[in-house]
């Protein structure tokens, strides 16, 4: 399985972007899919993910501004980002996982200017 993230770019504060992640291969074995981000000089952190029970978790810092979605029956998921802030600047990664098995996408850079 390979993950391809896209949709990053440069946006002004208050703007919006939509990130996409497309998985090649079957991901049904994985029980967790989601988005992480890593800002310069910081550790990678969870942004949003969904488990097999359909429950979406969001990081507190993006609650109410970002929305995770997934196309039913397809290996594609999205991160809709609104009201972007300069502190949202980071490389965003999509990820699938199950227990110790984790696959990361290559990352897409989001830069929010003030």
Q: Rg from C-alpha positions? A: 13 Å
The amount of beta strand, in percent, is over 45%
Order of SSEs, N→C? EEEEEEEEEEE
What is the helix fraction of residues, given as a range? under 10%
Main sheet?
7 strands, mixed
**Total strand segments:** 11
| First and last CA, distance | 37 Å
Structural class: mainly beta
> In terms of per-residue confidence, which ranges show pLDDT below 50 for 5 or more consecutive residues?
none
The pLDDT mean sits at 95
Account of the 3D structure:
- With 114 residues, this protein is mainly β.
- Helices cover 0% and strands 56% of the residues.
- It has strands at 2-6, 9-12, 17-24, 32-38, 45-51, 56-58, 66-70, 76-81, 90-98, 101-104, 108-113.
- The strands form two sheets. Strands 2, 4, 5, 6, 9, 10 and 11 form a seven-stranded mixed β-sheet that branches.
- A hairpin with a 4-residue loop joins β5 and β6.
- The radius of gyration is 13 Å and the shape is globular.
- The protein starts with a strand and ends with a strand.
